[in-house]
Amino acid sequence: IRRHYVSSGINAEYGGMRIESLVEVVETSMGPENGKYLTFKTITMAPIDRKLIEPKLMSVSQLDWLNKYHLEVREKVGGLFKELGKSQDLIDWLHEATEPL
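Above: the chain sequence. Below: its structure as tokens.
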């Protein structure tokens, strides 16, 4: 298992936010031809604080990525919360924090 720490951000001079994630390098069949390729699988599963996001400054592909990430967080973490018998308040908070932008 190969795990890496990924950190991306925008120059502070222009504003922006920093996202830090733990990812695993995994094989995938997605590529230009048949063969073995590598991609990243996100291990970190936490909502990105919506108060720090200005959707008007994001491209369509960036918004799409964020909404897909939040859906994955909602499904995986929400399922775990339910499995562990966590409070409905916590589940409701997660649902609100991962609403599409």
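DSSP finds two helices and three strands in the chain.
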